[in-house]
Design brief:
There is one protein chain. It contains 10 helices and 14 strands. The chain has about 325 residues and is α+β, with helices and mostly antiparallel strands. Helix 4 links the parallel strand 5 and strand 6. It is globular and about 55 Å long. The two termini are about 35 Å apart. It binds coenzyme A. Coenzyme A binds next to helix 2, helix 6 and helix 7.
Length: about 325
């Protein structure tokens, strides 16, 4: 589904936060117990370390609380919690229900599973809820992928990590979301899956090939709908799966590395959490100024994909404008 928005008012990001478990798992740790090397992992993926531990709810609560604190709000000010996750703590109920209780959120709560596209799917849904009259939505991407990854499988163990990132969206006059593109090709869903109670299995080569194509195609759709070219983008925040996927996609889009935010070197692939983790890193490093154009673009199991162009009408960290 593709759409361009044509109405006054909208929503903007007024606070953000992140959470990572304390335990760092380095490539050397894998080298010590699997048939792999730091060199192989770094060259093929760009990943040097990832974090393992905690629960999806605990990471989501920590990131969500930080976002509320930054916005000067409490849970009582929030009308809805959207939690993007593909590694929920329970089959039933939603992990968002625990976040709702622990943060004392007034409104509704639900999980969204669109795998690594989940945060951008959630962003669009948050805008939709606000367009329907809600005032504020807490959007979180949180994962504990280490629990659904076979730590003895060198094909997958090296890739995935745990973490969370959150934003608070608030109704405003100056809409931040210029355009978006959300998609899914369910016929390819067996390329990357995990049965209930089982581990992730993946056709890495095919996922790689498709990832580059859908990121480029989706980014082009969102940029065309926003009426912009890639030259005008101040920042690109791609899903953090593999540095070679990011480089290949950005090269086809004529986006230079200095305009791309990456955290995967330290986090690995954290699925729904990866885009907010990379977005917050860029914001904290002063890489976004008022009215900058920012592209978010992701892909993942499903196969799903999602992109969005934002004009940064949101908050800017102190002294960074
Ligand atoms: N260490 C050493 N060798 C490894 C390894 C590891 N950790 N993991 C796999 N290998 C081996 C394989 O067993 C295979 O060996 P074989 O040729 O003897 O069968 C070989 O390396 C595979 O090499 P190749 O296919 O050339 O690897 P690659 O360049 O495709 O890289 C991935 C593999 C998984 C890193 C890459 O395909 C990838 O990142 N794919 C996308 C995955 C992804 O992003 N998933 C999440 C989507 S949201």
């Amino acid at each position: 589904m593709t759409t361009q928005r044509h109405r006054d008012g909208g929503a903007t990001i007024i606070g953000w936060g992140t959470a990572l478990p304390d335990r760092i798992v380095t490539n050397a740790d894998f080298e010590a117990r699997l048939d792999t090397t730091d060199e192989w992992i770094t060259e093929r993926t760009g990943i040097r370390e990832r974090r393992h531990g905690s629960t999806t709810a605990a990471l989501a609560v920590e990131a969500g609380r930080a976002a509320l604190d930054m916005a000067g709000l409490t849970g009582d000010d929030i009308d809805f919690v959207l939690l993007a996750t593909t590694s929920p703590d329970y089959q039933i109920p939603s992990t968002a229900s625990q976040v709702q209780e622990e943060l004392s959120v007034r409104g509704g709560a639900c999980d969204i599973n669109a795998a690594c596209s989940g945060f951008v799917y959630g962003l669009v849904q948050a805008h939709g809820l606000i367009a329907m009259g809600l005032q504020r939505v807490l959007l979180i991407g949180a994962e504990t992928l280490s629990r659904v990854t076979d730590q003895q499988d060198r094909n997958t163990a090296i890739l995935f990590g745990d973490g969370a990132g959150a934003v608070v969206l608030e109704a405003c006059e100056n809409d931040q979301l210029l355009s978006f593109d959300l998609g899914s090709d369910g016929s390819a869903r067996t390329l990357l899956d995990a049965p209930i109670g089982g581990y992730i299995a993946m056709n890495g080569k095919e996922v790689f090939r498709r990832a580059v194509t859908v990121m480029v195609d989706s980014a082009r759709v969102s940029m065309a709908d926003a009426g912009i070219t890639s030259e005008e983008l101040a920042l690109v925040v791609p899903h953090q799966a593999n540095i070679r996927i990011i480089e290949a996609a950005c090269s086809r889009l004529d986006i230079t590395a200095d305009r791309v935010s990456t955290v995967l070197q330290e986090t690995g692939n954290t699925s729904s959490a990866s885009i907010p983790l990379a977005l917050v890193r860029a914001l904290e490093n002063g890489r976004v100024a008022a009215d900058d154009l920012v592209l978010l673009v992701g892909f993942g199991a499903g196969m799903s994909w999602a992109s969005a162009v934002l004009r940064w009408t949101g908050r800017i960290p102190e002294g960074k404008s």
